[in-house]
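Shipment paperwork, digital attachment
Item: protein structure file
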Amino acid sequence: MTGGAGYIGAHVVRSLQQQGMTPVVLDDLSSGLAKFVPDGVAFVQADINDTVAVTAALTDHGCVGVIHVAGFKYAGVSVQRPLHTYTQNVTGTASVLAAMEAAGVKHIVFSSSAAVFGTPDTELVTEESATRPESPYGESKLIGEWLIADVARAREGFTGVCLRYFNVVGSATDEVYDASPHNLFPLVIEALLAGRTPRINGVDYPTPDGTCVRDYVHVGDLADTHVAAAQALLAGTPLKPAYNLGSGTGLSVRQIMDTMAEVSGIDFTPEIADRRPGDPARIVADGSAAAADLGWKMSYSPSEMVSTAWSARKASGPA
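Attachment content:
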């Protein structure tokens, strides 16, 4: 799998192992950490844009499918770095698909994103909702979906499925934590560990408590569903082209802050800042299709999402 040394990818690797499968990790370590790859798992340090290296990894290890998690995932930064974003996410995905063809590998699970929807015009996003990405990141993920669909039409026996997910949080093992400098959970946790006060951007949204509402999904559930999708493709089970891995309800930023205070034991009152440009009031997805076809479920409470994230970060030691 690509990106297997990252926060999400490393969880997928462990889920593959738990299901008795043999993962092979390919990662350039631009954001992943080698220590996240479990001992005994084959690891190839390479860039996904190096098609020859990806082909060799697939061939040398006898791979039968790809879970493609590697990518540049920061929507806000992508506005300043559009060419870098496209190189990593569009050219990189094309490279992986070319390597798969060269190696005779015909099945791919693609990590897509809720960013393909942009600002939704409905309260609950479904697989049929309009795709109107509002950042180079969202555009690049949608093009990745198109590439896979085009290859599926052109290449006999080729199958792929795209998993669109939202805010991934928590940890299923203290060995792996979210080290992103852009995601809400690590931003709050790092602030608390450093003695700083976390910040809320905007408290005047048309939501129950005035703060943004988002889908927060636990990385353990997400990883298990990647594996379920891979198993379904290998078994020849018909799947939709894409699935939303959402909660159907969502949580507000204020709810997350309150839970952080409760779990950490650090009582704080968040600083209030202005809204960030482009932040929709609410983005929540219907995960019922993924539940029906892939066994998707939300098996962690908000408190468990926060407590597992806190535990994994604390176990990693000083930043």
